[in-house]
């Protein structure tokens, strides 16, 4: 049994379907043949019985009776038709006279009449056999139930079943021939239909083999959507696309990892080589002058600080990669942007760092819009206290005042989109001043985020801008509230050389720098923008970069805007009781 099961398992699906279909077809034909045979023979025998019953009811219709008296005589029995066996039996069942010898047939092969045949009753049907084994269907007519002249005894009439048997043999031969033809034709048709049906599976097999051999561009042809093969092809194509993308991602990840390991090793090795070099100079006695020793210690300290910063950046990226949930709170982006602008000015006093007015976008826009530079590319003029040229002595007081005002502003509602919105710092026209309940100009850029990480992201971008733009070049920090898209946006705008489009996607990779020579003049480890990208992903946001109108680069941080639930205006404006 295990051997048969093993051989069955080794058969192809096409062969299995063909064998099963032929087996079922053959089984059906055999069952039909047996059923037909079992029904046909009784029907033919019943016809013979009916004919015998007719003969028994009026024997004179086939016996040569006296025409005048219509009485059966012994001579009439002797010349009865040769297709029948007719005999007269006495009370003991012995044959008195029959028609067997009249037709020159040996008496030895005459049908054998049982001894109780004369006592079986009127018109009783039963079977008898001759010495050759042939069966005869027999009926008896008792004495007195037929008209006879001097004939005494029970009349026995028998008909051979040879014709019935011949009919059955012919039927079985014809049925077997037709059945065999049907089985052969069914096998051929099944083979063709199964092969045609499974042809798409052959294509699936061929495509899978080519894909396994390394040709990841192979795809299955689209089949009929509502069929099993069509759904299988669609599912497999989806799987192949994902596997292809997974291989591409794996190749890209391996390349990035190799580059990351190489760059990290180089970045860590360089300060170590410097420290080791100064240590060897000191050990060899080359630093015998206190001034040289001081310079060497200063260089060792700078390289140690630089290496420590690199290690801190790597640890921070590793923590961000762990996808731990950050501790978040509701924060306002405007004061954070102002603080970052003031910190940047404190670091580089020769630059003008501006905190631009908060913009509110009410209509959807397709193109990136840089605050204050969308039209002319010129720096915007200060508007009261909302635009802060950082470095002014009054800037901290002005920023603190603005924060106090912002803390009193309510959170926006999704219904704000349908109302006119003013820009802060610009008073509404006196001719058509909107009502207080329709004035939603003060919409805060509130987000749910980790304040330390947000400050770090903005600080990294400002530091990157100061590092790669000419000295004295101005910088702007702008905050935008995009109501249609429910985004809070922070833009860091510089007016340097800009970033070529072909490398804008690469600059957020770890250790990637446009300066492939790793010159130390610009500083940095190549991890700052990677940290920014990781921080934005942790906040379900994104970072993008595009060209500043008039020249330069604009880095844009997009945070999900924190929107409050709808509030019933009647209940919210009703006076307190």
Structure description:
This protein is α+β, with helices and mostly antiparallel strands and 577 residues long. It contains 12 helices and 14 strands. The strands form 3 sheets. Strands 7, 8, 9, 11, 12, 13 and 14 form a 7-stranded mixed beta sheet that branches. Helix 2 packs antiparallel against helix 4 and helix 10 packs antiparallel against helix 11 (528-538). The radius of gyration is 55 Å and the shape is rod-shaped. The protein starts with a helix and ends with a helix. Mean pLDDT is 76; it is low at 373-440 and 566-577. Residues 365-384 are annotated as: Disordered. The chain crosses the membrane at residues 20-40, 171-194. It is found in: Cell membrane.
Shape: rod-shaped
Q: What's the CATH architecture name of one domain?
A: 2-Layer Sandwich
Tell how many strands the DSSP assignment holds.
14
Q: Helicity level, as a percent range?
A: 40-55%
Q: Which stretches of 5+ consecutive residues score pLDDT under 50?
A: 373-440, 566-577
Mean pLDDT: 76
Q: At the third CATH level, what is the topology name of one domain?
A: Heat Shock Protein 90
Strand content: 5-15%
Assembly of the depicted chains: single chain
CATH level 1 class label of one domain: Alpha Beta
Distance between the termini: 92 Å
- In terms of structural class, how would the helical and strand content be classed? alpha+beta
Topology order in helix (H) and strand (E) letters: HHHEEEEEHHHHEHEEEHEHEEHEEH
**What kind of sheet is the major sheet?**
7 strands, mixed
CATH superfamily label of one domain: Histidine kinase-like ATPase, C-terminal domain
Rg from C-alpha positions? 55 Å
Number of helices: 12
